[in-house]
Fold:
Amino acid sequence: MKQETAAAINPTDVAFGEVAQMITTARQRAVRAVNTELVELYWQVGAYISRKIEAAEWGDGVVRQLADYLARQQPGLRGFTRANLFRMRQFYEAYRDDEKVVPLVRQLPWSHHLVVLGQSKEPGEREFYLRLAIQEHWSRRELERQIKSALFERTLTHPASASATLRQTRPEALKVFKDAYMVEFLDLAQGHDEADLHQGLVRQLKDFLIEMGRDFCFVASGYPLQVGGRDFVLDLLLFHRGLNCLVAVELKVGRFEPEYLGKLDFYLEALDRQVRKPHENPALGVLLCASKEDEVVEYALNRSLSPALIAEYRTQLPDKQLLQAKLQEFYALDTQAR
Structure:
């Protein structure tokens, strides 16, 4: 038994593990460096082709000849087909005049750029997804999912529903939370109950935290609180590193009702008195409901003294074309207001 214990904590194994971690870290840095150089190369090639075509020195046919020439000169060279050369030109022309975006393009792999260029048409939309992909460290798959969920349109047309207290005391939190969270990955049945929702979120915790945002950390499911000798249970307890605070999440499978806020307020008070550490900010609360009526939410939150938000969970990806139409209406109203 002693020999087994000694083997389990063998100092040599620990040292070897540290070396293995060094190798892994170095490989990750090398991959990032290669991606950066590759994107820089594509930018330069795209700029060269763009200038030649704009100066009327080249036509579209010359690009095909260039692709054929590169294939002959460097057999086995990948990524420089006629189609890809035109994508490099599109890449350069999409961002060359935007001083805010140019520094961002070298921070993402080429695969991410192909997704953004292929699925986002407006400059503001492209910048939105570039910044979030960098900030949240999205994979290509997650980037595609967020674009399909029309996150850009939803963010502009439906900002987070927050209490007046939260808006005044913690305005930075408004950039962290959403008005609706997509949980289509749970595959919930039409008549699901709160237990189905709760258990699904815990089972798919990684996907749920990605949807919430990169700085959210899981603390507990069914977190127990005791007040006045009575036992209470909070559905989910998270922590947000950027806001440095606990985040209480209450789940409701029906429509939002104003009385739900009272229970959430109670939980936030209990967390601040019993759980919050001295260096942490006061806890925030999120009511995650199946649906909500904007006017009812506004009335409920306007005089709430707690830092709370009300959001929807959605089990199906939205109709992006409908949201794009609403976005155009939003832009039109904004222009009229000015």
Residues 1-7 have pLDDT under 50 and may be disordered. The first strand starts at residue 161 and ends at 162. The chain has three domains: 28-94, 99-149, 154-321. Residues 28-94 form one domain.
